[in-house]
Amino acid sequence: MTGWRGGGDTHVLANAAPPRAIGFWGGLSANVLNMIGIGPFVTIPLALSALAGPAVLLGWIAGALLCLCDGLVWAELGSTIPESGGPYHYLREAYGRERAGRLFGFLYLWQTLLTAPLSIGSAAVGFAQYAGYLVPTLGDGGRVCIAATLCLLNTAILYRKVGDIQKLSLVVTFAVVVAAVWIVLTGVTHFDVATARHFMDAPVSSGKGFWLGLGAVSLIAVYDYGGYNNVCMLGGEVKQPRRTIPMAVLVSIPVVAVLYLGLNVSILGVLPWEKAAHSTAVVADMMQAVHGAWGGTIAVVLILVASWGSALVVLLGYSRVPYAAAADGQFFKAFARLHPRDGFPTVSLLFVGITSAFACFLSLEKLIGMLMVVQILFQYIAQCFAVVALRRRPRIVDAFRMPLYPLPIAISVAGWLYLVATSGVPTMLTAVVAIAVGSLLFLWQARRTRTWPFPR
Asked: 364 in helix, strand or coil?
């Protein structure tokens, strides 16, 4: 694997590495396809239930601004350390590879083993829920089977060289963006002022109160925008990564934010907000209201393509994390195994894909808050301070550096803490317990191997 260079020294992570075959458009499509998955099509009703009235749009905007600031963090880290499994290497290098970085790297791996199957499974479960719109007789058991089968199918599709997957993701991304634009234009051209005014006159307060409601909507928005960092997970397979990774990250966020805001406005200009808040297939209901049954059916088919593509690229990105840890000697050696001909991680891909199929037995709605809070506490806040730590080292001439430093970092940390504080006590406790268990496992392993923080 190509090592990252800083201050004149190079750290070689492994003797073999996947080829660098992903260009800008491939990286951008990996991000956009991840972002425009099933998320907004199932979470818009949840957002309207958390905070009624025009203030819900404020939550979507706040989430986009937070993601843009965090995107600058990812862009700088991804450009500085362009390796597959991105955050694992960012945290190891920033906090000391043989010191606290061992703990942060292990905790990131631990949270990935917990959340990767849940993230991929959530896209698959969303796929199955919308499939139920086409097959009303499909019961809960049928939806679980469809979701699990989708995970296994995607694992089989990804069992090939990454260059072929890049071509597939570009085609699917184009189809998904065209579909999203069509849905937004449908809403704009059939926009009803009276319906929109009814939404604008809705009471701002909700059962949670304004600030808790705003936090809930922003958390949902961040979940939906999530995926702008997917190219960082594939850093070791990106061509000209110091330039390509920042461009792919920072272009994908505003593109998808505009689409999401347009999607919200379109729905709220066609459907009464009360109906939208209680819909299980809100986009299909909107398209059916405008075009009739055929409109709803086509919309569902397009959403199924989007959610399938999202589950595919999320699996592609997460499958590189156990591989990166194993190649670095911090995980089971088998996970560092590459395909002898096509050079992709085999065991790591199969492990993440199969465990994702098991995760499909969980409900979609309960996953979002837990996924986000665990990632915030395990990873996102630590990455903000990782930028600060790495900036104290000799500068890499061609690496990207965020503008207005350190303001984006301060905004990111404040935003993440706000989302955690408004997520609810059960969700916070779950994340804290996960961190405690992961820390104990790390200490047990460190004591057994006589590594930091134990003396040799």
From this structure: coil
Interacting residues of 161 by C-beta distance below 8 A, sequence separation 6+: 19, 21, 339, 342, 343, 344
Task: In whole angstroms, give the CA distance from residue 219 to residue 59.
Answer: 8
Tokens representing 156 are 């089989």
Query: Which 8-state DSSP code applies to residue 334?
Result: G
Whether 8 shows a pLDDT value over 70: the answer reads: no
Q: How far is residue 265's CA from residue 131's CA, in Å, rounded to a whole number?
A: 25
Asked if 352 and 116 count as a contact pair (C-beta separation under 8 A), the reply is yes
283 exposed, middle or buried (CB, 10 Å; 0-12, 13-18, 19+)? Answer: buried
pLDDT of residue 2: 36
Give the whole-angstrom CA distance, residue 347 versus residue 216: 37
234 forms beta bridges with 84
Q: What is the pLDDT of residues 47-93, one digit of tens each?
A: 888 887 788 889 999 999 999 999 999 999 999 999 988 999 999 99
- φ and ψ at residue 345, rounded to 5 degrees: -65, 125
pLDDT tens across 208-232, in order? Answer: 678 888 888 999 899 889 889 999 9
Coil/strand/helix, residue 192: coil
Contact of 249 with 78, CB cutoff 8 Å: yes
Q: What is the pTM of this model?
A: 0.81
Q: How many CB atoms lie within 10 A of CB 134?
A: 14
Q: Is 292 exposed, middle or buried (0-12, 13-18, 19+ CB in 10 A)?
A: exposed
- Region of residue 292 (left: phi > 0; alpha: psi -120 to 50; beta: else): left
In the structure encoding, which two tokens stand for residue 362, read together? Answer: 């969980």
Distances (CA, A) of 136 to 130, 131, 308, 338: 10, 9, 20, 43
List phi, psi (to 5°) of 22: -100, 120
CA–CA separation, 40 vs 385, rounded Å? 30
- Average pLDDT, integer, range 102-115: 88
Task: Give the long-range contacts of residues 442-447, CB within 8 A, separation 24 or more.
Answer: 442/102, 442/103, 442/106, 442/107, 442/110, 445/106, 446/102
Pairing status of strand 5-6 against strand 9-10: antiparallel
Evaluate if residue 38 carries a pLDDT over 80: no
